[in-house]
Amino acid sequence: MSKVPAHPDPPVPESRILPSHRVPSFLSYLLRQVCLGIMAEVLAPADLRPAEYAALTTLDSEPGIDQRRRAARVAIDKMSASQLIERLQERGLVTRHVDPADRRARLLQLTPKGLALRRRLQPAALAAQDRILAPLRPEERPVLIDLIARVVEGHRVYARPGNGRRGPRTSASPPP
Description:
Elements: H1 24-43, H2 50-61, H3 67-73, H4 78-90, E1 94-99, E2 102-110, H5 112-133, H6 141-154
Antiparallel strand pairs: 1-2
Helix pairs in contact: 1-5, 3-4
């Protein structure tokens, strides 16, 4: 895994967001970069990716959830979810067992090692959330979270794996 700089270079004056770019789609893209970058600083020493830490968090709060429901909850496709859980399983952080009630389902559980890692990282991860919101006044922070949650919940149909991606090109179709 590549090293994440502890303190990235300060923004240059040209990095101000132009009025024409102050739209939800572009701002959410930049906010995602900020969130992933700050979380990567926390998780890099543990050799975890943000999606892997999210899996540990989900399994801590919902032990025994099946793999399909966990993937749906975080809007990732079944194959990516399976690969992510496999990586965590290889590291001894997660166990995966066949559900006796539905042999097709796989139930997920943190191992003691996975739970210990989650608990060790949790304070720094929570501090990272505060760092993300640091440019806002304390009273603005819950308002922003509520507004973002309302937008996402209001458009849940779009929060699904692969949404917005282009389909594969065929040899007969010319590039756009």
